[in-house]
Amino acid sequence: SDSALERGIAYYKSKKDSYSADRLTMVSELRHALNTNELVLFMQPKQSLKTGRIVGIEVLIRWPGRAKPIRADEIITLAEQTGLIKPLTRWVLEQSLELRSRLLDRGWPMNISINISPNNLREPDFPIFVQRLMNSYHSHQGAIIFEVTETSMMQDPGNSLKALNSLSATGIPVSIDDFGSGYSSLSYIKQLPASEIKIDRSLVTELTTEAEDRVIVQTTIEMCHSLGYQVVAEGVEDDVTANLLRDMGCDMIQGYLLTPSLPFDELLEWLERSQQ
Ligand code: C2E
Ligand code: CA
Ligand code: CA
Ligand code: CA
């Protein structure tokens, strides 16, 4: 049985080593992808339920050239663990402003929503970087919106709040992402300099069948409105859900009902087809 144990340990070690070797390879591949512009931003529209117009676009990272597909959140976790998140987010920001100006050139003025990692908030020069970039693109302050997840803020509430305040001092609107997906402290949320709340997909998917979800979403919308936030529902996949959300007073929706995220050219075609 001893030798079985030893074999077990040896097996475990080899798994562990191959795991970290894999990971090292992935890190250097990601660094390379970032430097050679292999990463791509896909775009998903955000629609106003009041007017039916597309009012904004969220950018989502993709790594299309990779033999073994890797999800966006895996890319981000890897980047966060290795310090690559700093150059990655700056690349995303610059690309986003570039895409925004290309949309504007084609007659589509849009706000761009960009996902920010809590690590970025800890970079002392982040607000200055953002300000310089905005200036060089002659962008007005509402041109981009920063999305931060509720859960990521809760990991270090005090410092996250400070960082978010200094960022919001640059005038860029903040959106609280994935609201309702984790532990929330309303007394904390209300201190955040946010103008928008995005209700997490997990509360939206079963809205038509789950009475409890309807109560939670309705209450969240009312509460957010009294606190002065705009409300976006994410993960809307059908008309029935969209109509329900409109009746509940929700301001905007995002999701497969409109379209999954698309590369720039396909987004343009989609806009021209769906919005006259
Ligand atoms: P998120 O910010 O909550 O983004 C929404 C995710 O839901 C996206 O997945 C999107 O493709 C997916 N989605 C949108 N509509 C629907 C729908 O109707 N039904 C379903 N089933 N799914 C829908 P994606 O692109 O895989 O991104 C996953 C997460 O990775 C994002 O979650 C975001 O937290 C993170 N992420 C993506 N790009 C970036 C980035 O550039 N920077 C940072 N920091 N995080 C990013
Ligand atoms: Ca988001
Ligand atoms: Ca989200
Ligand atoms: Ca989500």
Automatic annotation (TrEMBL):
Molecular function per GO: cyclic-guanylate-specific phosphodiesterase activity
Alphabetically ordered keywords of this record: Membrane, Transmembrane, Transmembrane helix
Residue span, EAL domain: 23-275
Keyword Transmembrane recorded: yes
Identification of the protein by name: Diguanylate cyclase
Species per Swiss-Prot/TrEMBL record: Marinobacter salsuginis
Full-sequence portion shown in this chain: 569 to 844 of 852
